[in-house]
Amino acid sequence: VQLQASGGGLVQAGGSLRLSCAVFGRTVRNYVMGWFRQAPGKEREFVAAINLSGNTFYADSVKGRFTISRDNAKNTGYLQMNSLKPEDTAVYYCYALANSGTTYWGQGTQVTVSS
User: Looking at the chain, which runs of residues are DSSP E strands?
Assistant: First the structure.
């Protein structure tokens, strides 16, 4: 299974970005999908996840601003990020979690929010 994250970039505070996570090699419908992020000098932290039933989970810091979704037909997951803040600046990593417990990671995409 390979994951390819894209959609990062430089945006002003208050702006929006949509990250994509394309999955290759397996059908995404069998995986929990989600996102972590890691800011410079900080540990990787959970951002959002969506399970097989479409239930969503968010870190408190992004609730109401970020929306995670999945398109099983396109084998892709998404993270819509609105009202971005400078503290959202980080490398964002997507992951896919199998029933076996195996986790697959994408390569990361940089998000930079300027004040």
Answer: 2-6, 9-12, 17-24, 32-38, 45-50, 56-58, 66-71, 76-81, 90-97, 103-105, 109-114
**pLDDT digit string (tens) for 70-81?**
999 999 999 999
Write out pLDDT tens, residues 34-59.
999 999 999 999 999 999 999 999 99
Cα–Cα distance between 85 and 105 in angstroms, integer? Answer: 25
Tell whether the model's pLDDT for residue 67 goes beyond 90.
Answer: yes
Classify each residue of 68-89 as buried b or exposed e, where b means 16 or more C-beta atoms within 10 Å of its C-beta: bebeeeebbbbbebeebeeebb
The two tokens of residue 17 are 């970005």
CA distance 89 to 58: 17
pLDDT averaged over every residue in the chain? 96
Identity of residue 76: T
How far is residue 111's CA from residue 16's CA, in Å, rounded to a whole number? 11
